[in-house]
Amino acid sequence: MGELLVADSFLVANGKVRGLELHRDRFVGSCAAAGVPAERFWEEQIARLPGFGRWFPRFELPASGELAVQLRPAPPVGGRVRVAVHEGPDPRTAPRVKGPDLELLGKLRESAPDRADEILLLDTDGTVLEAAYSALAWWEGDTLCFPPSDRPLLPSVTAALLRRIAAAQGIEVSEHPVTPQALQATDEAWLVNALHGIRPIHAWGPSAIDPLPNSHSTEWQSHLDSLATRLP
Q1: Residue 188 near residue 133 (C-beta atoms within 8 A)
Q2: 10 Å Cβ neighbour count for 7?
Q3: CB-count exposure of residue 68 (10 Å: 0-12, 13-18, 19+)
Q4: CATH topology for 81-230?
Q5: Where are the domains of the chain?
Q6: Which residues are within 8 A (CB) of 157 and not within 5 positions of it... i.e. 6 or more apart?
Q7: What value does the CA radius of gyration of the chain take, rounded to a whole number of Å?
Q8: How far apart are CA 52 and CA 15, in angstroms?
Q9: Can you list the positions of beta strands (E) in 27-80?
């Protein structure tokens, strides 16, 4: 993989995408910050995406400055996940921009212990920021919680959509730090991203699988999917 300044990926399922306008804003805004206008490129390439099948395209701004798109078949969508915790500080160099750290994060996840599907990254105070390829959300009673938005987090499209759903349903939302230990004691914790949607954490490290019989994830995944709109 060549050096990427900016990247953005999303699931296209039979011509429909969740939060396409949010992906556009994130990619175009990051490209603009790098000195490359990308509005016209985005619109032209979106119009060329297939309206059938399942795809996971990646829009890219490489170090060469030449915008590109990789049209990739969508990988299988996963369900529940086993997680591990990264030992040491957050290794990313640009946590608020998707692209520069993708190769590093891929290697980090591949080396995760205990056959974990994802690895959690910690802030300097030992609280959880997000995972290598997913944002974090969790439930405390009837409150949907997220790490504080002023922390070094990638702006997550899927997390933003969950906030929209919560607002529409009158669900309270809270932002506050949480340690890995406290997260394991919450009612339910999710990893969320554009490919998989919602994946509840069902195991930590080498621990036994929690069957999560009262998981909200199926209901909320349905709400999330209902937000998908047709490609222009």
Answers
A1: no
A2: 21
A3: middle
A4: D-amino Acid Aminotransferase; Chain A, domain 2 (3.20.10)
A5: 4-70, 81-230
A6: 10, 18, 19, 22, 23, 26, 194
A7: 17
A8: 6
A9: 54-55, 58-62, 68-70
Fold of 4-70: D-amino Acid Aminotransferase; Chain A, domain 1 (3.30.470)
Whether residue 2 has pLDDT greater than 80:
no
Burial class (CB in 10 A: 0-12, 13-18, 19+), 117: buried
> What string of DSSP letters covers 169-194?
HT--EEE----HHHHHTSSEEEEEET
Nearest Cα residue to 23 out of 51, 56, 62, 64 = 56
149, 175 contact by CB (below 8 A): yes
pLDDT 10s digits, 4-48 = 999 999 999 999 999 999 999 999 999 999 999 999 999 999 999
Confidence band for 78, pLDDT divided at 50, 70 and 90: confident
What does the pLDDT read at residue 79?
86
Distance CA 51, CA 38 (A): 22
